[in-house]
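Sequence only, no structure available. Ideas?
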Amino acid sequence: MRSHMKLEVLEKDYYYHIYNRGINGTTIFENDSNKLYFLKQLAKYTENKISIFAYCLMNNHFHLVIRLKAEEKEVTQGFSNLFNSYAKAFNKQINRTGSLFEKHFKRIKLKDENYLKQLIIYVHLNPKHHFDLDFKNFKFSSFQAYLSDKETRIERDETISLFGDLENFIFCHNQKNNLLNEIYTFE
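Reply:
I predicted one. C-alpha cells follow.
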C-alpha cells in the first residue's frame, strides 16, 4: 500500500507554493477563455483570504505562490469552491463528467525569502521549462503584471522590493532563463 503524504497545514501569514494538475494528466484548460475564467474564479473565491505573488496556468497544471491572509479553514474552503466551480463549468463546456483535478491540491510551505524569490522565478519560467515558450510574452503568468503599471491583484510592490527593484527582478529572471537555455543546448 502506498503511504499517503500528509498534507501540509496552511498557516496564516506564511508563504506557500500551491499547485495541482488535471487528474491523470488531463487537460484542465482547453483555451484562453478557460484560463481567464479560472483567474476570475480565483479572484472571487480567494479575495481577502490570500495574497498572490506569482501564478502560471499551463494546459494541464497550474502554480500559485501565495501568502495566507486568513485562517486555514477559510482558505481551503475558498480553494475548494474555486476548483469545484471551475470543474463544473469546464465539464459542462466540454461535455465531460467526474473529477477534473487530482484529489488534494499540493502545498509546500516556503522556508525563507530566498526560496520565495527562486519560486517566483520558477513559476514565471514554467512556459519555458515545459514548452520552450518565451516566458516574457506568455499571457497566463503573472510576469507581465510586474512590468505593467495597470491595476493588479498581484503583490507587485512587495515582490519587486524583495528583488531590490524592477531591474533586478527582470535580471534574475533572465539569468535563470539563460541557465535553462544552456542546459537545453546540452541535452
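Residues 15-186 form a domain with the Alpha-Beta Plaits fold (CATH 3.30.70.1290).
Hope that gets you unstuck.
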